[in-house]
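testing teh design pipeline on a random one, pls ignore if ur not involved
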C-alpha cells in the first residue's frame, strides 16, 4: 500500500510538471509568432487603404490612371486631450533651447521618422480633429454587422488603443510642437518625414495643414532637426500635379535651414520626397516626371530631387525602377503583412536596389494595433512585447546595411505605431494599452539606443 501511494504521488507530480512544461513551450511559441509571423496574406485587411480594392486597382492600372477614391484618412492617427494639465506643466518646466541642445543626443540624419500634424482640439481648432475618428466598417456587410459603428468622443474616448501623455492635443499648439521636437531629438532621430497634402487639401477626416509647415520648420531648426515631406495621395494625383507640388515645396520652403537635403554618392545635395501609395499611378505616368526623357521631366532642373516610392508587393520593385524613382521604402509596421513589410524579404530587396542604383529604406515600427478604428482587424495586430518587437525590426534592418532607416511612426496613434510618450488610462469601459512596466519614454530610449548602434555599425561598413 505504501509503495502504491508513493507511485501515485510520483505520477501526479510528473503529470503536473509535464503540464507546466507544455504551457511554457506554448508561451514561447506564441511570443515567437508575435515577433516574426510566418505569413499574413497580402489580401489581409489592413490600414492605410490596403483593402480589397487594391486588387481591383491593380487591374485598372494596367490600362489607365485610376482616380484616387480613397484618401489616406485610413492612415490616420488619433490622440486625446488631457492637454491643459500636461501642457501647462511642460510650459513651466521647459528649459532654454540652448541648454537642451547640450543635454540631448546628437541627431542621426540617417534616421527618418514619419510625423503627422492632423490632430485638433476645441482649444486651438474649435473642434476635435482625428481624435474623434469614426469606426471604419468592414467591406463585407455580413462581417460589418458584427461590429460597433459610430465615432469616438474625445477627450476620454479617442480613436487609439494607447493614450498620449499630452492628451488629445492639437498639432497647432506651440507647446505640443516644441514637446514633439524635444522627444524626436531625444530619440536621436534626425529627419522628420512630414505628412503633407497640397494647400487646401487634407485626408477625409482632417483639415488642411500646409500653413503649419513654417512653424514645424522653425521648431525643427531649434533642435537641429531636418524636415522632408511625405506626399500623401489625393484625387487625380499625376505627373503634372506632382511637378507643381515639388515646385511649390522647394520654392516656398527650400531655403529654410531645416529643409532636408540628402548628399548623394556623386556629391550632389538634393531634397527628398517620400511618395505614399505611389503604386496607384502607372509607371508610364511617373516616368514623364522622373526620367530625363519624360515630357514633364523634373530631372536636371532646379526642382530635381530624390523620390522614394512605397513598395508593397514584390512586383512593385520593377514598376519603381521603370518609373524613374530613386529608391523605395516599406512604411508598414506589421511584419508579415505585405511583401515589403516582411523582414525576411529585406535582403533580396536591398540586393535588387543595389543592382539597379536605387536606395532601399526599410521601415521599422514598435508594433501595430488599429482595433480602435478597425475593430475587425485583430489579426493584423502585432504585440510590442515590451519593446522586443521594435528591437527585432531594427536588428533586421541593420542586417541589410541600409543607407537610411525610416521609423513608422512618431505619432500615428490610430494604428498604434507611435513611439511618442503614452500613459496608462482607464475611463468608463475603455482601458487603454500602455508601455508598462517601462516608462512613457521607453520607445524614445530604444530608438536612441539603436541610432547609436547604427552609427557604430555604419562606421564598420564604410571601413
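output:
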Amino acid at each position: 500500500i505504501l509503495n502504491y501511494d508513493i507511485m501515485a504521488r510520483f505520477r501526479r507530480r510528473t503529470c503536473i510538471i509535464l503540464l507546466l512544461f507544455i504551457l511554457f513551450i506554448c508561451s514561447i511559441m506564441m511570443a515567437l509568432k508575435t515577433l516574426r509571423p510566418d505569413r499574413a496574406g497580402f489580401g489581409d485587411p489592413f490600414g492605410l487603404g490596403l483593402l480589397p480594392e487594391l486588387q481591383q486597382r491593380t487591374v485598372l492600372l494596367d490600362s489607365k490612371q485610376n482616380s484616387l477614391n480613397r484618401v489616406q484618412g485610413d492612415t490616420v492617427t488619433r490622440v486625446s486631450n488631457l492637454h491643459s494639465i500636461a501642457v501647462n506643466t511642460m510650459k513651466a518646466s521647459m528649459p532654454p533651447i540652448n541648454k537642451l541642445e547640450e543635454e540631448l543626443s546628437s541627431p542621426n540624419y540617417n534616421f527618418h521618422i514619419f510625423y503627422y500634424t492632423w490632430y485638433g482640439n476645441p482649444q486651438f481648432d474649435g473642434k476635435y480633429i482625428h481624435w474623434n475618428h469614426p469606426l471604419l466598417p468592414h467591406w463585407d456587410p455580413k462581417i460589418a454587422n458584427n461590429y460597433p459603428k459610430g465615432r469616438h468622443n474625445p477627450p476620454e474616448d479617442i480613436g487609439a488603443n494607447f493614450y498620449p501623455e499630452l492628451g488629445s492635443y492639437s498639432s497647432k499648439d506651440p507647446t505640443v510642437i516644441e514637446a514633439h521636437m524635444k522627444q524626436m531629438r531625444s530619440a536621436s532621430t534626425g529627419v522628420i518625414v512630414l505628412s503633407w497634402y497640397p494647400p487646401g487639401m487634407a485626408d477625409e477626416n482632417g483639415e488642411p495643414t500646409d500653413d503649419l509647415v513654417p512653424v514645424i520648420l522653425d521648431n525643427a531648426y531649434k533642435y537641429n532637426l531636418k524636415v522632408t515631406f511625405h506626399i500623401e495621395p489625393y484625387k487625380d494625383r499625376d505627373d503634372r500635379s506632382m511637378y507643381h507640388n515639388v515646385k511649390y515645396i522647394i520654392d516656398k520652403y527650400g531655403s529654410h535651414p531645416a529643409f532636408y537635403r540628402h548628399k548623394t554618392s556623386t556629391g550632389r545635395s538634393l531634397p527628398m520626397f517620400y511618395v505614399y501609395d505611389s503604386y496607384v499611378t502607372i509607371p508610364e505616368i511617373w516616368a514623364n516626371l522622373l526620367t530625363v526623357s519624360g515630357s514633364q521631366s523634373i530631372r536636371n532642373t532646379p526642382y530635381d530631387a530624390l523620390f522614394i516610392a512605397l513598395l508593397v508587393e514584390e512586383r512593385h520593385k520593377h514598376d519603381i525602377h521603370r518609373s524613374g524613382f530613386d529608391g523605395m521604402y516599406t512604411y508598414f509596421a506589421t511584419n508579415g503583412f505585405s511583401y515589403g513589410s516582411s523582414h525576411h524579404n529585406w535582403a533580396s530587396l536591398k540586393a535588387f536596389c543595389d543592382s539597379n542604383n536605387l536606395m532601399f529604406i526599410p521601415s521599422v515600427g514598435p508594433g501595430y494595433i488599429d482595433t480602435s478604428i478597425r475593430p475587425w482587424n485583430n489579426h493584423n495586430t502585432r504585440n510590442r512585447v515590451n519593446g522586443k518587437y521594435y528591437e527585432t525590426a531594427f536588428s533586421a534592418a541593420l542586417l541589410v546595411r541600409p543607407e537610411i532607416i525610416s521609423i513608422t511612426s512618431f505619432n500615428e496613434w490610430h494604428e498604434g505605431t507611435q513611439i511618442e510618450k503614452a500613459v496608462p488610462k482607464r475611463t468608463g469601459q475603455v482601458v487603454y494599452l500602455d508601455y508598462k512596466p517601462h516608462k512613457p519614454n521607453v520607445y524614445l530610449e530604444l530608438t536612441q539606443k539603436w541610432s547609436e548602434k547604427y552609427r557604430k555599425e555604419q562606421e564598420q561598413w564604410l571601413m
